[in-house]
Design a protein that fits this description.
The chain is an alpha+beta fold. 21% of the residues lie in helices and 34% in strands. The protein binds zinc ion (ZN). Zinc ion binds next to loops.
């Protein structure tokens, strides 16, 4: 649970996620988590009233402090970008770091009421901000995004969009869910829009928060149904059916895209024929 208005003392030992700009502090000696007492963080004491508890990791509480764009040099601390931190972190830490970053972004982008322009105030019983004038309340934004791995006759469909071009990487298809749309409808629509084919046998796989900036990736497996690959040329530049033994450069297993691809490859190799009815 996320809590604001936290009571702490100099002896309070915790995992600290302290953001400055797009970066987070970490210990110079050990990579990953910054674990210490509040008393050792003199440079952050001006932010005591803004500390947010974002959960716990192991038996330690996790606290967020957002310094916005204030840049502070500390001898025993270094800065690391959020992406680099998440790439070097164990999976169990991924969730808490993602949450901290999303809450920090929420606070930065909701300083004023979207309805009347008055300054927003923190609510102390839940993670939200509220306008004191018109009572408009806002919660941290979460944007659902479907991601789908498609197989057909022993091959997997992988595509390359603009972001993957510079790294020559191919990945699964993904896209944001539109207002009023079911997750399954979003899968069918995105696949057809991006590569011009239809799919069937949708199966829920897993989900993953992706804090750049506030996506919740919802993963599905699907089978090809009909059509010929025809990329849209905007979001997707190239897409092909790949043989599991001749895969291009693909995302790491840390990401849900990497996990979907790995699972599909295993299914293909085991020649599994899973038939779970589509829910759409
Ligand atoms: Zn207002």
């Amino acid at each position: 649970m996320i809590e604001q208005n936290i009571l702490i003392t100099a002896e309070t030992r915790a995992i600290w996620l302290i953001f400055s700009g797009e970066k987070v502090f970490q210990s110079s000696e050990s990579s990953g988590l910054l674990i210490t007492t509040w008393g050792a963080l003199n440079f952050a004491h001006a932010y005591q009233e803004q500390i947010v508890r974002i959960g716990s990791h192991g038996d330690l509480p996790c606290f967020l402090i957002d310094m916005g764009n204030e840049h502070i040099e500390q001898n025993n601390l270094s800065f690391i970008s959020m992406r680099a931190l998440l790439m070097q972190s164990e999976t169990s830490f991924f969730g808490i770091a993602s949450r901290a970053w999303q809450v920090a972004l929420f606070m930065r982008t909701h300083r004023f009421c979207g309805q009347c322009g008055t300054a927003m105030q923190q609510i102390n019983w839940e993670m939200a901000v509220q306008c004191s004038r018109c009572q408009h309340r806002c919660y941290p934004r979460i944007s659902p995004c479907i991601i789908v791995s498609i197989r057909h006759e022993g091959k997997i469909l992988l595509a390359q969009g603009k972001p993957q071009r510079s790294r020559q990487m191919f990945s699964t298809l993904a896209g944001f869910v539109e207002s009023g749309e079911k997750l399954e409808q979003a899968v069918h629509r995105e696949v057809f829009e991006e590569v011009g084919i239809t799919v069937k046998n949708l199966r829920y796989f897993s989900s993953q928060p992706w804090p750049f900036p506030h996506s919740l990736m919802v993963g599905f497996l699907a089978d090809f149904d009909s059509g010929e690959i025809e990329v849209d040329g905007k979001e997707i530049l190239e897409a092909y059916w790949f043989d599991p033994d001749k895969l291009p450069n693909i995302p790491p297993k840390l990401s849900i895209a990497g996990q979907l691809i790995q699972h599909t490859i295993e299914e293909i190799k085991q020649q599994k024929n899973i038939t779970i009815p589509s829910h759409s």
